[in-house]
Write a structure and sequence with these properties.
Blueprint: H1 3-9, H2 24-29, H3 32-38, E1 44-49, H4 56-70, E2 75-80, H5 81-88, H6 97-111, H7 115-132, E3 160-165, H8 170-180, E4 184-190, H9 193-204, H10 207-218, H11 228-231, E5 237-240, H12 246-261, H13 270-282, E6 293-297, E7 303-308, H14 344-359, H15 369-378, H16 380-383, H17 394-405, E8 414-419, H18 423-432, E9 436-441, H19 448-451, E10 456-457, E11 466-470, E12 473-474, H20 479-483, H21 512-528
Parallel strand pairs: 1-3, 1-4, 2-3, 4-5, 8-9, 9-11, 10-11
Antiparallel strand pairs: 5-12, 6-7, 6-8
Helix pairs in contact: 4-12, 5-6, 7-8, 7-21, 8-21, 9-10, 14-15
Length: about 525
């Protein structure tokens, strides 16, 4: 046997068939591809994320009911991360939301920011182990063929789904993605602020406390804190609850599960197509700060133009990887390729801080000028300045492109953008006649609603203003995966009729062996942190 193979397999070498197993039947039986196919699992891990006051428990319960009744999932367990906090808390976490947040932050600080995700992984592994040991599951294989010899036992196939309610920290999300990969599906749930406030007011009574908690839940300025606004945009599916009815939640979740399990032919909505166009356009950007893409649609949903953020060039357009066909000596003058690569906006903000500090000479002690510069540079007012960037913003670029070709169809249309519009773009959006903006990622520096409260609103029911609302639907990162026809095609090649789509494995399925190895690594880290040893 090859020494490298032997080294990788270690003690499992004895499980391999001997060279004497040379018959055609035995070669087929021990075919590597067949073994991998048998290890493919229908298991799902669904993680929920949503701002405080969002009905995540209702979404979790609806998912469980749908998976069990409509999609033949035998084991659906709901894992509430808040229960782990309450079990371990020394703060009396069950007594208030404030204490629960504090207790969660304490756990992350002491045992690592991903400790709650590690506990969820531990719970998932335990549930799976119990099911695998059940006698009625011991001989099941996904391929439907007879069980393999005892020497190479395939992974038992149990239709598990684990619903994690809910993740609040980016390190939690990153660990879950590292372990479960395509197996993990993150659903971000958004409810209007008014309904969230009303829900929390019934529970807390104090309106001042409600808004304080909502702000804190959205994003705390330290690594071990909650930061829903950073986790939320990284979802695979966005569920916007506008009226809060069970039918609306059920309908949206059913569509996503139908896509995920490949049981129906479903095509993208106009909004999903437009946001995918915006997401794709963003990949053209070489901006050092962030890649942003935008797409403008007419009132009927037709995409009119796309744009992205980058440096404008003389006589129209933006710099790109290559020049026009008639330009033999094209030079790319974008920020990454100019003066060694730097952000002009950041450089200008530093100079502003230095000039402000110099103006304070004589008032501030001479030895503290550098400290003043640092504090000014970090202050939200200076840090939030965006006026000195060389780049045209994605929304402006899309509007310019639409102006060349749309024939006035922009007015009354929609703008889809990967990041919430800044206040500079907001005025152009208003002036162009856009009636609605859909976004994925929030943008803390934007003053759009503050500066243009007369013309822009985040209240969905206010049709007298330009509405800026969160995107809902399949996230662009899952667009190609979920809307592709699949390996078997859509029709029976013999009859030409549409195939019957049985409930099978998710289109994002993976082999479970790799997953269990990664789970083991995460759990060893949990053990080494000292968490399992007790408080």
């Amino acid at each position: 046997m090859d020494k490298e193979v032997e080294m990788v397999l270690g003690s499992n070498v004895s499980l391999l068939p001997s060279a004497s197993a040379s018959s055609r039947h035995d070669r087929k039986r021990f075919d590597a591809k067949r073994r991998i196919d048998e290890a493919i699992t229908p298991e799902l891990v669904i993680a929920l994320c949503g701002p405080l006051g969002t009905p995540l428990h209702q979404v979790s319960a609806t998912l469980k009911e749908l998976l069990e009744k409509s999609y033949d999932y035998k084991v659906v367990d709901e894992i509430r991360l808040s229960h782990f906090i309450k079990e371990r808390s020394q703060r009396g976490a069950a007594s208030s939301i404030q204490n629960l947040i504090d207790a969660g932050n304490d756990l992350r600080l002491k045992y690592g920011n991903s400790v709650l995700a590690q506990l969820a992984i531990r719970k998932i592994a335990m549930v799976r182990k119990r099911q695998e040991e059940a006698p009625d599951h011991s001989q099941m294989t996904l391929s439907g063929v007879e069980p393999a010899p005892a020497a190479v036992v395939p992974t038992p196939v149990v239709r598990h789904c684990h619903i994690i309610d809910s993740i609040k920290n980016t390190d939690e999300l990153e660990l879950l993605r590292s372990v479960y990969g395509r197996l993990l599906h993150v659903i971000s749930v958004h409810a209007p602020l008014a309904s969230r406030v009303q829900h929390l007011q019934k529970k807390l009574g104090d309106m001042g406390e409600v808004f304080k908690l909502i702000d804190r839940d959205s994003g705390e300025e330290f690594a071990n804190g909650q930061s829903v606004r950073d986790v939320f945009p990284q979802a695979d599916f966005f569920l916007r609850i506008s009226d809060g009815t069970d039918d609306q939640i059920r309908g949206s979740l059913s569509r996503y599960l139908d896509l995920l399990l490949g049981v129906k032919i479903i095509t993208p909505s106009a909004n999903e197509r437009a946001m995918y166009e915006a997401h794709s356009a963003a990949r053209n950007s070489a901006c050092l700060s962030r890649q942003v893409g935008a797409a403008i649609t007419a009132a009927d949903g037709t995409v009119l133009a796309v744009g992205w953020n980058d440096v404008p060039r003389a006589f129209g357009g933006l710099y790109e990887a290559h020049g026009r066909p008639d330009e033999s000596h094209y030079v790319d003058h974008r920020c990454w390729n100019k003066d060694g690569g730097k952000c002009w906006n950041d450089e200008e903000k530093t100079e502003i801080a230095e000039r402000l500090a110099q103006a304070l000479e004589g008032i501030v002690e001479a030895g503290k000028i550098e400290e003043v510069v640092t504090r000014l540079r970090r202050s939200s007012e200076v840090r939030g300045l965006i006026e000195f960037s060389r780049a045209v913003h994605a929304e402006m670029h899309a509007l310019l492109n639409a102006g060349h070709s749309s024939g006035g169809r922009v007015r009354g249309g929609k703008l889809f953008v990967t990041t919430y519009p800044c206040h500079s773009c907001a005025r152009h959006i208003i002036a162009a006649g856009i009636r609605e903006v859909r976004f994925i990622e929030p943008y803390r520096k934007s003053l759009a609603t503050r500066l243009h409260a007369d013309a822009i609103t985040e209240i969905e029911s206010d049709e007298a203003k330009v509405r800026i609302v969160p995107f809902d639907g399949v996230a662009p990162v899952r667009f190609l995966e979920l809307f592709s026809e699949g390996g078997l095609g859509r029709k029976d090649a013999r009859t030409g009729r549409m195939r019957v789509f049985p409930i099978g494995v998710p289109v994002t399925s993976v082999t479970l062996e790799a997953v269990t190895t990664l789970e083991g690594l995460a759990l060893r880290e949990l053990e080494s942190s000292g968490f399992l040893a007790g408080p």
